[in-house]
TrEMBL record, chain A:
Cofactor: pyridoxal 5'-phosphate
EC number: 2.3.1.50
Record's protein name: serine C-palmitoyltransferase
Region (Disordered): 491-524
CDD domains found in the cross-reference section: KBL_like (cd06454)
TrEMBL record, chain B:
Molecular-function GO terms, alphabetical: pyridoxal phosphate binding; serine C-palmitoyltransferase activity
Region spans: Disordered: 438-460
Annotated GO CC locations: endoplasmic reticulum; membrane
Stretches assigned to the Aminotransferase class I/classII large domain: 131-418
Enzyme Commission number, as recorded: 2.3.1.50
Family stated for the protein in its record: Belongs to the class-II pyridoxal-phosphate-dependent aminotransferase family.
Lineage of the organism: Eukaryota, Fungi, Dikarya, Basidiomycota, Agaricomycotina
Biased composition range(s): Polar residues: 438-453
InterPro entries named in the record: Aminotransferase_I/II_large, AON_synthase_class-II, PyrdxlP-dep_Trfase, PyrdxlP-dep_Trfase_major, PyrdxlP-dep_Trfase_small
Broad enzyme group: transferase
Cofactor entry: pyridoxal 5'-phosphate
Name listed for the protein in its UniProt record: serine C-palmitoyltransferase
């Protein structure tokens, strides 16, 4: 992926390219030749970072994928519109991780120093949109009830599982399931779409059809490759090829697939300790604890932090896993309005002065739980303000960085990095590996005392299966390649030297690790052999900067087109507001049936407030500027058809946006 | 999802209060009965939804939604302070530390946790370089390190990458997940199955997906921690029966039925929740009897087969295969693919209705990324291997028998585990008691326990610290002889009922008879040595 200088070991592709590679046709044939050779040799791409569009492992179903792929020679999902020059060597598969050589399409994700965090203002749509939205819901509900009435009385067989039957109460009453059956079903073709292959820059949909209005679906057998702007693949590590995948393969060969048991009862591997050490370094904490599921990290660790007599103050939009954990903990809970620091402060004053309910005894502890980046809103936590409040009100702070770790900050270390706040001034940093790292599971990082306590008191240690070796290796490899590895780090590529040298959060570990710097080679498994571009951190650095560019470009572009979007401009999550429920399935289907299909996520009540149905884009470092152009173009077309452009203020035509992308991205607020 | 619901809560309360005044006029309006029914059922189940409808009808209220979280301000316990007083209170308040430092025992516990350097398996290397026979890790069917599984996993990696990068609803449903779900359903003989990304979190989500406030759960007193948490989240009414005592279950069910008839309670969802093989002591439930009771009293059965799936029955299908009971008779069969199939994750098998319901309501299914494709394929391959090599399960049972024949003769210990259980718990037999304490919660006297309380009438008495110390000594002693075993770790103070301390052996089919005999004897000698010293 990265724009490498011509490498000392010439790749196959380079050999080919030395002749003449100015046309797409020759590019294609080079690709084919490289492929064919890779397959003939059966060699792993470790040695040959050639442009390989397919796998070198040949199995029967692999061939069907290949057949499908070779059908589309001019498809921009497979081949970049502008072939690379002979100087450029890409080590990724374009359909997984796009080739983008233009170093102007980069940006640094960082909060401008000294600038106060401006609270983000929600934009209201015109009145008629709100009105029609409510009316739509009323109509949908009425029709639903009418259909229920007729089904109940004239087609009782379809209702059997919803009414008491032979002495059993229904598992789900007709009342409880009304929304699911009568509203959600209408757009079920937009959810749970089966896919295959890598959830990278593009994804292969397994086409399906419903003959009974979305109650059941049948596969049609067709596969459709679509541009994927939906997966949480922020840094583009969802890859079946490349250094990380090679490391995982080596890991499987060495360790097998399972950790066989819980961490405290014989499921602890040396790899766990390695990964935990690396995570701690990455986020800048003393120690960390890993668990095999991100959801469970919250739901099983929060009860170990607080209990009766403690108070949890939680942002109203916190993730379900946090609410699950808080409910299990038995602590009291209060909520504050999303990201509203004034509301938070007044709540803090109230709860501290009032103490525990009834008894008025002081609270044992107060824990504030916020997310770094909110997955439905794209909003960033106002961390500088929270840190001020923390000094005054002495609460403990827990930040769920599921979406922000890896995705924000000049070094990818999350919101603390983004705002340049010392990580150790936060008590608990939690995050997941499912997103930026292309792995699975989650971590909790904090002081050594805290983490040791959680190892023993958290539910996962004694009862939940440990993280498996392949996942651990993916975590280690992807994290190390974002950080770079220290002895082999040429100065020119040091991510910390090329950006934000003004960073004030230097701290040094006993083994010479300096946050937020490269990982000491001694903290990685000895057998881990990362290719040079990963090892020196240049590729990781490039990924961070591509993500920052793409995020800003998409949200600014949509803004300039006149759409109402939510969230922070640096957020890789960009929600575009649709409002009317009927527009959700339409938007999703229209995107999917574009000439170059695009898959999107639509979300509605109850995941969002009733009126603000939205489509949510998740930008990735794997996207190229051309991909974002494509999304903008599609949105532009659909926006006109569906009447979605309601933002007041300055608008630009699509061509102007595409031509001025760099300027748009670099523009200050 | 809950947040938008619960944030409407204060408003709902307000509405309900005004409702009583409105009621009289209200019922004169045609169609009012329908609305009344909503309010009623939502009061029982899910307040937010009624509210939503009310908002739509009373359109103007939508704009009032802004003021929230102030609910407590006008409660009768609210004390009014001036700003200055508040500042003083804030200054005075000193919170407790977030976490206490570990004491010496806890530090020792943590330091004693075995760490395996290199691949997991029956004969792994420890960090200190020593190779041991591993009776601590769950590798019942010996699939850890299986070459076929590794090959399939690598193939999958090269096609799918590692992470799925999305929850199942948002392009995280990969074809290999659907394949594994089909394989599991096929293997067990149910209509469908659903995969969760972690075994431990599975049942904690399955229970609250079905059982809500007002529903009735009848559960075993010895259930594992995950089930306890699921029950806690569900907020249902819980009744308890004595550990693995189906007579006690029958009594509780009868009592509930009588109460329902007497008080004319409405029909609610009712569940029996128990485990196939209990994680805490290895006891096995009498499935046919359980099924009989469930049908007799019209309860649904949620059975946790995390330990038994993949370890008992001719080909590892679990209790249903062992007792020859069709799996379709278990409403929600929950299992783990991390134990018997040496992958990572969990599943719930049942009818299509049961499974599809969870695809929308299973919290940790909906709100968590789906499992990595290669883990899913590894589990499918695991099923394939079990299907085609019944000898694995025979060997496993042989090995269990070998072990038990050595250990059962000892009179300083008791083994509460079922003879077919692949986990063998070894408890210290209290020297004062003549009667073997075979169960973690069995009641001594004849009187039944109170079903509303999780505590049994006569809880067995034991000295947790003392016994743990002894058992740890045994563990250390055994390790010095090259055999790795572990105490059953338990979250003391967080469990509803403290489990009796034990050493938990996890037997694997990957051992030879010789190795089992040798290890069994090593353990025996250590037990005799440590426990003998005690008297
Ligand atoms: C804020 C937050 N926390 C936790 C999680 C759960 O993570 P995982 O998908 O790894 O289980 C998510 C995932 O969507 C999330 O958004």
């Amino acid at each position: 992926m990265a724009l490498n200088p011509p490498s000392p070991t010439p790749s196959m592709f380079k050999k080919k390219s030395s002749s003449n590679l100015s046309t797409a046709a020759s590019y294609l044939s080079a690709v084919r030749a490289a492929d064919a050779r890779a397959r003939a040799h059966g060699g792993t791409p470790t040695a040959t970072p050639a442009l390989s569009l397919s796998s070198s492992v040949t199995t029967s179903s692999e061939d069907t994928v290949l057949a499908e792929e070779s059908d589309h020679e001019d498809n921009i999902l497979y081949y970049p519109p502008i072939p690379p020059t002979s100087e450029q060597v890409f080590t990724t598969v374009h359909s997984e991780f796009g080739h983008c050589a233009n170093s102007d399409y980069r940006y640094t994700s960082q909060h401008p120093q000294g600038v106060p965090v401006t609270p983000w203002l929600e934009q209201d749509p015109p009145y008629y949109i709100l009105f029609t939205t409510y009316v739509s819901y009323i109509i949908l509900i009425c029709i639903g009830h009418i259909r229920d009435f007729f089904h109940k009385h004239f087609k009782p067989s379809t209702f059997q599982h919803l009414i008491p039957l032979q002495g059993y109460a229904p598992l789900n009453s007709d009342f409880d399931s009304f929304y699911t059956r009568r509203l959600k079903t209408r757009l079920d073709d937009c959810f749970s779409y089966p896919v295959t292959g890598v959830a990278g820059r593009t994804i292969v949909l397994l086409d399906r059809i419903s003959h009974d209005f979305n109650v059941t679906f049948e596969p049609t057998g067709k596969r459709v490759r679509a541009l994927n702007i939906s997966s949480y693949n922020y840094l583009g590590f969802a890859q079946a090829r490349g250094g990380c995948a090679d490391a995982v393969e080596e890991g499987i060969k060495r360790y097998g697939v399972s950790a066989c048991g819980t961490r405290l009862e014989g499921g602890s591997l040396d790899l766990h300790a390695t990964a935990e050490g690396l995570v701690a370094k990455f986020v800048g904490m003393e120690d960390s604890l890993i668990s095999s599921m991100g959801f469970a990290t919250n739901s099983t660790i929060i009860p170990a932090l607080v209990g009766k007599g403690c108070l949890v103050i939680s942002d109203e939009l916190n993730h379900a896993s946090i609410r699950f954990g808080v409910r299990l903990s038995g602590a009291n809970v209060r909520m504050f309005k999303h990201n509203d620091m004034a509301d938070l402060e007044s709540l803090l004053r109230e709860v501290i002065s009032q103490g525990q309910p009834k008894t008025h005894r002081p609270w044992k502890k107060i824990l504030i739980i916020v997310e770094g980046l909110y997955s439905m809103e794209g909003t960033l936590v106002n961390l500088p303000r929270i840190m001020e409040l923390k000094k005054k009100y002495k609460f403990y702070l827990f930040i769920d960085e599921a979406h922000s770790i890896g995705a924000l900050g000049p070094h990818g270390r999350g919101v603390t990095d983004y705002f340049n706040i010392p990580p150790r001034s936060v008590d608990i940093l939690m995050g997941t590996f499912t997103k930026s790292f292309g792995a699975a599971g989650g971590y909790i990082a904090g002081s050594k005392t805290l983490v040791d306590r959680l190892r023993l008191r958290g539910h996962t240690g004694a009862y939940a299966e440990a993280m498996t070796p392949p996942v651990l290796v993916q975590v280690i490899a992807s994290m190390a390649s974002i950080m770079g590895v220290s002895p082999s780090l040429p100065a020119s590529f040091s991510p910390s030297s090329s950006s934000s040298s003004a960073s004030t959060l230097r701290l040094t570990d006993s083994d010479g690790y300096e946050h937020p710097g490269p990982a000491p080679a001694s903290s990685l498994p000895a057998w881990l052999d990362l290719p040079p571009a990963l090892r020196d951190g240049s590729e990781g650095h490039d990924r961070l900067r591509r993500l920052a560019f793409n995020s800003r470009y998409l949200s600014r572009g949509l803004e300039k087109l006149g759409f109402i979007t939510y969230g922070h401009v640096d957020s890789p999550i960009v929600p575009l507001l649709l409002f009317n429920p009927g527009k959700m399935p339409l938007f999703s289907r229209m995107m999917r049936s574009m000439e170059t299909p695009i898959v999107v996520v639509v979300v509605a009540y109850p995941a969002t407030p009733l009126v603000t149905s939205r489509v949510r884009f998740c930008v990735s470092a794997a996207h190229t500027k051309a991909d974002i152009d494509l999304v903008l173009k599609a949105c532009d077309e659909i926006g006109d058809v569906l009447d979605l452009k309601h933002r007041p203020g300055d608008r630009w035509p699509l061509e102007k946006i595409m031509a001025n992308a760099i300027e748009l991205v670099r523009m200050n607020e | 999802m809950d947040s938008s619901l619960s944030s409407y809560q204060p408003l709902l309360d307000f509405l309900l209060r005004s409702l009583s005044t409105l009621e009289t006029t209200f019922f004169k309006i045609p169609g009012s009965a329908v609305v009344a029914r909503y309010v009623k059922s939502s009061h029982q189940n899910d307040p937010g939804r009624t509210l939503l409808e009310l908002i739509l009808l009373i359109f103007a209220i939508g704009t009032l939604l802004q003021s929230r979280t102030r609910a407590d301000r006008d409660g009768k316990h609210f004390i009014k302070f001036s700003e200055k007083e508040i500042d003083e209170l804030v200054d005075e308040w000193i919170p407790e530390p977030l976490a206490e430092t570990l004491d010496a025992k806890e530090q020792a516990d943590l330091a004693a946790v075995p760490v395996i350097a290199g691949p997991q398996g029956p004969r792994p290397k420890l960090l200190n370089g020593k190779t041991v026979l591993n009776f601590a890790s769950y590798n019942f069917t010996g699939l850890a390190g299986n070459e076929d599984i590794k090959t399939r996993a690598i193939e999958t990696l090269r096609k799918y990458g590692l992470g799925s990068c999305g929850p199942p609803g948002f392009y995280g449903t990969v074809d290999v997940h659907m394949d594994l779900e089909r394989d599991l359903a096929d293997f067990l003989g149910t209509e469908a199955a659903i995969l969760y990304a972690q075994g431990f979190s599975t049942i904690s989500s399955v229970i609250p997906a079905f059982s809500k406030r007002g529903d009735i759960i009848v559960a075993d007193r010895g259930i594992n921690f995950a089930i306890q948490k699921g029950i806690q989240i569900s907020r249902s009414t819980v009744r308890w029966f004595d550990h693995n005592d189906l007579k006690s279950l029958e009594d509780v069910l009868e009592g509930l039925e009588k109460e329902r008839k007497k008080r004319k309670l409405p029909l609610t969802r009712r569940f029996i929740i128990t485990e196939g093989i209990f994680e805490k002591d290895g006891a096995m439930v009498d499935l046919p009897k359980l099924i009989e009771l469930k049908y007799k009293f019209k309860y649904r059965l949620i059975l946790d087969e995390s330990i038994s799936f993949g370890t008992v029955g001719r080909t590892g299908r679990g209790l249903t295969e062992l007792y020859n009971v069709p799996a379709s008779q278990i409403d929600m069969l929950v299992g783990s693919i991390s134990n018997g199939l040496a992958s990572c994750g969990g599943f719930c098998a049942g009818t299509t209705v049961v499974v599809n319901h969870q695809r929308i309501n299973g919290t940790s299914f909906v709100f968590s990324a789906s499992m990595p494709a290669l883990l899913s394929v590894s589990a499918s391959e695991g099923i394939n291997i079990l299907r085609n090599a019944p000898s694995i399960l025979t060997t496993l049972q042989d090995n269990i028998r070998t072990f038990r024949s050595i250990l059962e003769k000892l009179d300083c210990i008791s083994i509460p585990s079922h003879p077919a259980s692949p986990i063998i718990h070894i408890c210290v037999r209290p020297s004062s008691l003549q009667v073997p304490q075979l169960s973690i919660t069995s009641s001594g006297s004849g009187k039944p326990s109170n079903p509303a309380s999780v505590q049994p009438r006569d809880p067995p008495q034991f000295d947790i610290d003392g016994e743990e110390r002894l058992l740890q000594e045994v563990v250390d002693e055994v390790l010095a002889q090259g055999v790795l075993v572990t105490r059953a770790k338990s979250l003391r103070g967080q469990e509803m009922i403290e489990a009796r301390p034990s050493i938990r052996l996890a037997i694997s089919s990957a051992f030879t008879k010789k190795e089992c005999e040798k290890s069994g004897n090593v353990i025996k000698v250590a037990l005799v040595k440590v426990l003998g010293k005690r008297r």
